[in-house]
Amino acid sequence: MHYDLSLRMGYSYDVPASGARHIMRLMPLSLTNRQRLVAGSITISPTPDEQSHFVDFFDHPATSFMLRAPHETLDIRMQARVQVESQPIAADFSPLLADLPEEIAGIWSLAPDSPHHFIGDSPRLTQAREISDYARSCAMPDLTAMQIAYALCARIYKDFTYDAEATTVDTTPLEAFRLKRGVCQDFTHIMILALRSLGIPAGYVSGFLRTIPPPGKERLEGADAMHAWVRIWCGETIGWIELDPTNNIPAGTDHIVVAYGRDYSDVVPVIGVLKSYGGQRAVQAVDVIPLK
Fold first, then answer.
1. CB within 8 Å of 3: residues ≥ 6 apart
2. Same domain (yes/no): 279, 260
3. Three-state DSSP class for 226?
């Protein structure tokens, strides 16, 4: 499946901002046997005074840029063409939960995809007993790590309501858990914490999701979305799988990966600092267009 992607992220400030330095992680990745970035570009307005590119710890290309002069708006646009491959359905050769620690201990690598980075607390995720108790209700002793992951994914989908007004980007997983409402970031963080509390390595995936309009309805320009889902390590034989608790499905050809991390803090699309005061407003529009 081939897609043309376009993303616009716009910011306007009540008072002109200056001395702004930002880091972007917006471009889809090229991943062996998963997806290929055919072409891509990012434009920034105003034109940055400084711009550089680097690869972060998790092997993601990132762009750093600086705007010295006062500016009332910041406009970032990304365009890309991506090829996404269908993923085969993997047979469940993952270990029972009781046997998973031995397999993790047998991994000596500290490479970016090592399960050791995804088993403990991370900057935005610390263990919460309520979430741990919730996880244990899905962890029957005769289930494999993969079966538990699928069971938690389905349970979160059933128990939680998607509500874009209920939470913000800074809402903690425990707050969203108690509300039983939120968005993909909340459901992803809750599922990661639940899995880690059981000793199953899990991480955050940032990307794009193609949305399909209801039957008889026109597709709305800009109505697609950046999305988040969960990456789970299911033992040496299976390795990593990806599940989407917002939709209760495995990540498939409609899921386009931008970045992997321990939690949202590792994959924030645009982050930075600037000098200003007063408020700011942000707009985002995404198009994920399949090519025939």
1. 81, 82, 84, 210, 256, 288, 289, 290, 291
2. no
3. strand
Domain that holds residue 184: 99-265
| Residue pLDDT tens, the chain, 292 long | 899 999 999 999 999 999 999 999 999 999 998 999 999 999 999 999 999 999 999 999 999 999 999 999 999 999 999 999 987 766 889 999 999 999 999 999 999 999 999 999 999 999 999 999 999 998 888 899 999 999 999 999 999 999 989 999 899 999 999 999 999 999 999 999 999 999 999 999 999 998 776 565 555 444 577 899 999 999 999 999 999 999 999 999 999 999 999 999 999 999 999 998 888 898 888 999 998 6
What is the tally of helices (H) and strands (E) in the chain? Answer: 5, 14
| Neighbour tally for 143: CB within 10 Å | 17
Q: How long, in residues, is the chain?
A: 292
Q: Yes or no: say if 215 and 135 are a contact pair by the CB < 8 Å rule.
A: no
Place of tokens 């990806």: 242
50: which 2 tokens? 């400084």
DSSP assignment of 44-56: EESPPSEEEEEE-
CATH of the domain at 285: 2.60.40.2250
Closest by CA position to 260, among listed 117, 125, 84: 117
pTM of the model: 0.93
Is residue 155 located within the same domain as residue 194? Answer: yes
